[in-house]
Amino acid sequence: MNKLPRTVLCDMDGVLLHGNSMVSGADRFLDGLRSTRRNFLVLTNNSMFSPRELSERLATVGLDVDEPQFWTSALATAEFVNSQRPGGSAFVIGEESLRLALRNVNYREVKDNADYVVLGETQDYSFDDFATAIGLIENGSRFVATNPEPTGPGMRGSLPGCGAMAAVIERATGVAPYFVGKPNARMIREALDVLEANPKGSVMIGDRMATDIMAGVDAGLDTILVLSGVDGIEDFDRFPFRPSRVVGSVAELVDDL
To answer: What fold does the segment set 85-179 form as a domain?
Structure first.
């Protein structure tokens, strides 16, 4: 694979951003996607922020991505539950971004007789919310979580992520959640639906073999592992699947647009 396909799905953290800084050359990469009229979406498993908030965050480091060009695990989760039980109800643990995504597909937020318990990321997890979620699941509500990451970055080190908090509810109820975010290939397929694209002629770019690349491989896309984030050159050979290509960063892809 030399020239990039016409449809590009791109992870955010570790690919465009490194902490609170731009990955060198990420601005030129995004400019190249636009100038060559490629369809692209920026994907993130982080459900804490809305597309507007993410657009504003990237703008502060010099990256121009419009709101409609984000596909988050919150949006993917809302699309999933609505595809299964249209116009249903959910008890939600998470930030306003997740609640907004559910409202936008006409889901009602309730505390009793919920079709789903939907767990996302927040820094305000509460004992009462977990007690309510456990009771609902014991009484038949289905358990869905936005993403499986056990930790997220914090100012003083790692913070508990959605995957870790889902494990608490699973241990209490014996019910495992359905994780919508990567490595679930469903998130990739939903993103392709947004772009009205198909796996052939599409590529997934990410920095994590176990999430980005696995999801892309399972969805039938070409995949590119960038070494500007979590996984290094020594990591990708441990997996039974391989990326189509490995590059240092998206800056190396500018000439392939």
So the answer is: Rossmann fold (3.40.50)
